[in-house]
Amino acid sequence: MDKQLQRADNMNNPQKEISSLKETISGLNAQIEALQYDKGQSIQKAIATATDEIAQLRATIVAQREEQEKISYEKDRHYQEIVALRNNENIQLKAMVQEIRDEMERKAMEFDRRVEEERSAWRGELKQLQQTIQALRERV
Question: What angle do CA 117, 123, 129 make, to 5 degrees?
């Protein structure tokens, strides 16, 4: 009932009504400004959070790229070491094969020389035996 009386009073007094409406508008404007301020703060907080998250993600990406490059470098370096070891091993094996071939060739030449010496000695003995046989035939 107080409201009805107040309305009746307000209707009777247009100045009071205008003043009351101005107060209501002012109060509503204050509430709107407070809501806008709160909303602006929320937006700023969300932007700051998103910016921090983006920075963290970028840092994570950079760290992962660096780790990937490090792993790739280590893998390449390890591969190069293996290739170098295999090349050294191949060089050593080729040198050993050549040494063995040279040794076999020397032994083959030595064997051929000994065979020739034995043949020469055998020919000499054979000739001497043939001469002895010839001499014995002539005596008989």
Answer: 135
Interacting residues of 10 by C-beta distance below 8 A, sequence separation 6+: 16, 17, 20
d(CA 58, CA 64): 10
pLDDT tens sequence across 110-138: 999 999 999 999 999 999 999 999 998 88
Annotated domain spans of the chain: 2-101
The separation between CA 16 and the C-alpha centre of its own chain, rounded to angstroms, equals 81
Cβ neighbours of residue 92 under 8 Å, at least 6 residues apart?
none
User: CA 125 to CA 133: how far, in whole Å?
Assistant: 12
Is-contact 35 28, C-beta < 8 A? no
Phi, psi of 13 (to 5 degrees): -120, 95
pTM: 0.48
Q: State how far the Cα of 42 lies from the Cα of 36, in Å rounded to an integer.
A: 10
Give CA–CA dist 10/2, Å, rounded.
12
